[in-house]
Amino acid sequence: MPDKPGDLVQGTLDMLILKTVALEPIHGYGIAIRIEQISKGVFKVNAGSLFVAFQRLQRDGLIKSEWKATENSRRAKYYVITEKGRKRLSSETREWGKQVAAIARILEAS
Amino acid sequence: MFRKEQVGRELDEELTGFLEMATEEKIKCGMSREDARREVRLEMGSLEVTKEVVGTAGWESFVETWWQDLRFAARMLRTNPGFTTVVVFTLALGIGANTAIFSVVDAVLLRPLPYKDSDRLVQLIEHDQKRGVDLDWVSFPNFRDWAEQSKSFEQMAAYKFHVLNLTNVSQAQVLFGLKVSANLLPALGAHPILGRNFLPDEDRPGRDHEIILSYATWRESFEADPQEIGRTLTLNGEPYTVIGVMPPQFNFPPKVPITSSVPSRRTEFLIPLGLAFNPNERDWNMLGIIGRLKGDIELEQARADLATIARSLAQQYPDQNQQIQVNVEPLLDQVVGDVRPTLWVFLGAISLVLLVVCANIANLLLARSTIRQKEFAVRTSLGATRLRLLRQLLTESLILATAGGAFGVVLAYGGVVLLIYLSPDAFPRLRDVAVNGRVLGYTFFISVLTGVIFGFAPSWEVSPVDLSQPLKAQGANSTWSAKHLHLRSMLVISEVALSLALLIGAGLMLKSFVRLQRVDLGFRAQNLLTLWTVVSESKSVPLQPAGFYRQAWERIQSLPGVKAVGAIDNLPLSGIHGGGPFTVQGHPTESDVDAPSAYRCIVSVNYFRTMGISFLQGREFTERDRGGALTVLIINETAAQRYWPGQNPIGSHLSFTVGRAQPTWLEIVGVVKDVLHDGPEVAAKPTIYMPFLQAPQAFMVTLVRTESDPTLLTLPVRGAIAEVDKDQPVLMTRTMADIYTDAVAQRRFNTALIASFGALALLLAMVGVYGLMAFAVTQRAHEIGVRVALGAQPWDVLKLVLARGLTLTFAGIAVGLGAAFFLTRFLSKLLFDVPQTDLVTFVVVSSCLGGIGLLASYIPARRALRVDPMVALRYE
Hints:
The structure holds 2 protein chains of 2 kinds.
Chain A: H1 12-23, E1 26-27, H2 28-38, H3 47-59, E2 63-69, E3 75-81, H4 83-109
Antiparallel strand pairs in A: 1-3, 2-3
Helix pairs in contact in A: 1-4
Chain B: H1 2-28, H2 33-44, H3 47-55, H4 60-78, H5 81-110, E1 121-128, E2 133-135, E3 138-139, H6 140-149, E4 153-167, E5 173-180, H7 184-188, E6 194-195, E7 210-213, H8 215-222, E8 232-235, E9 238-245, E10 269-272, E11 285-293, H9 299-316, H10 318-321, E12 324-330, H11 331-336, H12 340-381, H13 386-422, H14 437-462, H15 468-472, H16 478-518, E13 528-534, H17 545-557, E14 562-568, E15 579-581, E16 583-584, E17 597-603, H18 607-611, E18 615-618, E19 632-636, H19 637-643, E20 653-655, E21 666-672, E22 687-691, E23 699-706, H20 714-724, E24 732-735, H21 736-743, H22 745-779, H23 781-789, H24 794-823, H25 839-865, H26 869-875
Parallel strand pairs in B: 5-10, 7-9, 17-22, 19-21
Antiparallel strand pairs in B: 1-2, 1-11, 1-12, 3-11, 4-5, 4-8, 4-11, 6-9, 7-10, 8-9, 13-23, 13-24, 14-23, 15-17, 16-20, 18-21, 19-22, 20-21
């Protein structure tokens, strides 16, 4: 269990990144901001873990990256989801749904 | 690996971009640029840490990090060439010496003998239970019974040393070789490269005139002419047909035993054994026996098999075979059994030296790690994990160890050449020594092992890093240096202890060697030349041995510079001896087994005078003691005391006939002082001397006592022989001093080797003591400065340093004494007349080491004296 609110549950960061990248090609900072925004500030992403996660996902072939200009015409690395990444995201989402439902039932039961 | 750099650069750019975007975002929200930047940095943590974290995350980065470590380590070592050179050189010395010794162990002990399935080959010898001695040679009747009755052997073959004079060629020459049973080569799994092996039919008396040449003889004496097969050679005046040539690598027996009657040389020919069976020769031991075990027979089964046969032979022939057992040993054991303990001692000793090397290098690395403490602290605070630092250190150690190993192999090549050059000729299998794959594997293994051992010390120290200490500390870093000094002290103590143990071993061996040299051999070896000849047995040679030698000795006697000429068949120190049982008149014995026995030598008239052997009683042999006259004998002191205790043996009679046969009585006319026939380490045996004129024989060693350097007479003496008979080859001429040197060569070699190991360890240990003391003085310069400023006298300062150095040395000596007390027991077989815990050696070596330790700490102590208090304090 995270000891302070806002820390990510272990293993969910990859899923959040995949979800974010699945919407459109986006750079690292954008991903950090998007996760923070979507979660309404509940999740704060540590830069270190974020970049480790990028490396991991790239190596697993779930995302790929390319250098592009940003809207402020700065060079940045944009991440794009791959086909394999999409499949993984949908299976993880299903799995996640099941788990949440299960946890909810356990919590309600007590 | 370029990818790694590119990834690093991209990561850099990406992170910077990330940082800037975050900053801009904050500015948009109304923060000032500086505030925004600070905020972002606080939120993100250090960029460098992030990089380290990202960098060490993946599995593939392991290899990349390792490569990075490697390059970094190489860079560190390059920037410090002095340190690196010292470490690599020390290591190369330790690993090289170790490799050289291991290559000897490998060649002599571990490698199989050069025969097909050589682990199936065994040597069969007899063991005389009553006298408790091994008899290397076996009689022909016993051999035949074994071969016929045993069921454990594919082949059982016999051989006998033999000497042939080759004549009817431009230069008459002597060949050393073997008479062999026809199945010897099949038993060894060897085949001639040219021609054929002996046929079973040729191994019979009268049909035995075929010869197989060794490759070297074929090449050197017959110009490698393939047409040589089928030609006839004149050997001992008789015709022999060449039927084959052995391959170049063939040699048998693998070790020429010291008791053989030929000097140690490679076998130059094989001829058939051609022995006639004579049931009365059951006590004539002359054959070496080897066997090849049948495929499914274990050594133990063969032993049981032979034990049964030996028991039945003992019942059948009690006079000769009572209490005679048969020992069946693997051929390899028979060859190298004598040197095995010695070699393991060498390997053990050189491994101790390697340990000292490790301790020394660990010490050097520790000294350096004080300088690098800061570097590690900085890297840690930048996010490097402890594991990463340990890996870094270990990588450096392994690089050093590998470099040391590589140079060590080069040194080992030289070392092997040196070892072969220095080693005694009689050392078995030493010709085969080479640095091969297994040796290199061993070297690699010990290199890595040493790398881990000495790399461990600084790693251990770096582990519990308190970051703030080394970063803050400038001069007074005493908080961690206490532990540091402790560790280094332990290392120095173990170095001193190990080298003390080695030096005590060396001391014991040196003392043994000195004792050995002082042993009175019973004759004067100086200014004595020996000349070895075998007069051909054949009838076609004009002169019989007696006539030939009489003329030869007369001619040599008349040469200028010759004081006396004598001769003997079994020359002392040469390894040649022979003898057997006899009967003392009035004390009949039932059989060979119960009879007294003695060495027998045949000597010329002037033998005792020429050798300088003094008479205790009675007279010398004279020209009148010849065939037809009363047969006379001279015995030595040991024989007189053992077999005629409390009596005067002069005028007593003995006979070489034993048992129920009718004895021929021989009269004792003199008693001489003992000669140490088997070398200075072996007590004198009872010996009986017979006059040459009453028992002339072909093989004699002529002794020439000279006025000055005996080698000057080599040519004149050979000339004298040629004048008597130009077809008479000379086996060799050697000075007695050289023969003595050979007799103690093994011991000299052992002593020199262990002593040099000890010296090496001593040198390393003293470098260790010196290094630590010098370091301590530098560390404490400030403290010493304060003391001097407060009025400490030079003596106080000196005492401060010396006391510490001596404490270390004495602690090392104390531990070393314990170790030596335990370890010298492995040396006991190599010592002579010195107990393994010889008090004098222990005390003398310890005090010497103490003295040298004092000296090693005195030099840094002197430096401490020169500490200028002002400088030391200002340095703070």
